[in-house]
Write a structure and sequence with these properties.
Blueprint lengths: L6 H10 L8 E4 L3 H13 L2 E4 L2 E6 L2 E10 L5 E2 L1 H6 L8 H19 L11 E5 L7 H11 L5 E8 L2 H7 L5 E6 L19 H8 L8 E2 L3
Parallel strand pairs: 1-2, 1-6, 6-7, 7-8
Antiparallel strand pairs: 2-9, 3-4, 4-5
Helix pairs in contact: 1-2
InterPro entries: PRTase-like, PRTase_dom
GO molecular function: glycosyltransferase activity
Pfam family, one: Pribosyltran
C-alpha cells in the first residue's frame, strides 16, 4: 500500500474527497492532525480551528489509553478495557484530573482566551493524522455532537479497519483514504512523520501565538 509522503500530502489528498462540504469549519486534533487539516482548510476555503483532546492512560503504563477527553466534553472510557484491567472510571480520577489540566494548558497555548467557535447548525469536519484505537477521535466526535452541528464528518488519511468501523456510529460520515490489513501504528504509513511541538502547531495555524482564528491563507 502506498505511503503518504507527509501529513501535508495526506491532507491534500483528503481535501479532494471533501470538496462537496458546504461552508464547513475544520477542527484539527493537535498536534499531528493540524498538519493534515491546514491543506484541507485551504482547499475548501474553510475556517480552521483546533479541538484539543487528551488520552487517559493506564497508570502503570500511560501509553495504554483507557479513555480520552476533548475540550467541552466529558471523559469517554473504554469500559471493556477498564473491566479487563479491573479498574473503574473512579479509580483513574487522578489521571483524568492531570489530563484536564494539560488539556486546559494546550487550549490556552493554541487559542488563548478565545472560546471554541459555535458549532451549532454548522457542517464540521474533524481531522486527525490517523486512527489506531480511535479513543481521542471518539471523545472529539462526542464533544462536537453535543454542540448540535448540522453534520459531522471525520476525515483521516489512514486507520485501522475495526476502529474506522466503530467510529462510523459516532459521525454522520467517515472519510478515510486507506485501511490497511496490517495496520500497527499510524506512523508506519508516512515516509516523514515527525513529532510536532506546540510551536509547530501555532506556526501551522499561522497565528504566531496570538490565538486568532480565521481562514488559512494561500
Amino acid at each position: 500500500m502506498e505511503l503518504f509522503a507527509d501529513r501535508a500530502e495526506a491532507g491534500r489528498r483528503l481535501a479532494e474527497r471533501l470538496r462537496d462540504a458546504h461552508d464547513p469549519i475544520v477542527l484539527a486534533l493537535p498536534r499531528g492532525g493540524v498538519a493534515v487539516a491546514v491543506p484541507i482548510a485551504r482547499t475548501l476555503d474553510a475556517q480552521l480551528d483546533v479541538l484539543v483532546t487528551r488520552k487517559i492512560g493506564y497508570p502503570p503504563a500511560p501509553e495504554l489509553g483507557v479513555g480520552a477527553m476533548a475540550e467541552g466534553g466529558e471523559p469517554v472510557f473504554d469500559l471493556a478495557l477498564l473491566q479487563r484491567l479491573r479498574l473503574t472510571p473512579e479509580s483513574v480520577a487522578g489521571v483524568v484530573e492531570r489530563e484536564r489540566r494539560e488539556l486546559a494548558r494546550r487550549v490556552r497555548a493554541y487559542r488563548g482566551d478565545r472560546p471554541l467557535p459555535s458549532l451549532e447548525g454548522r457542517e464540521v469536519i474533524v481531522v486527525d493524522d490517523g486512527l489506531a484505537t480511535g479513543g481521542t477521535a471518539r471523545a472529539a466526535l462526542r464533544a462536537v455532537g453535543a454542540a448540535k452541528p448540522a453534520k459531522v464528518t471525520l476525515a483521516v488519511p489512514v486507520g485501522a479497519r475495526e476502529t474506522v468501523r466503530s467510529l462510523r456510529k459516532e459521525a454522520d460520515e467517515v472519510v478515510v483514504l486507506q485501511m490497511p490489513l496490517d495496520f500497527r501504528a499510524v506512523g508506519q504509513w508516512y515516509v516523514h512523520f515527525e513529532q510536532l511541538s506546540d510551536a509547530d502547531v501555532l506556526d501551522l495555524l499561522g497565528r504566531g501565538g496570538s490565538g486568532g482564528e480565521g481562514r488559512v491563507s494561500p
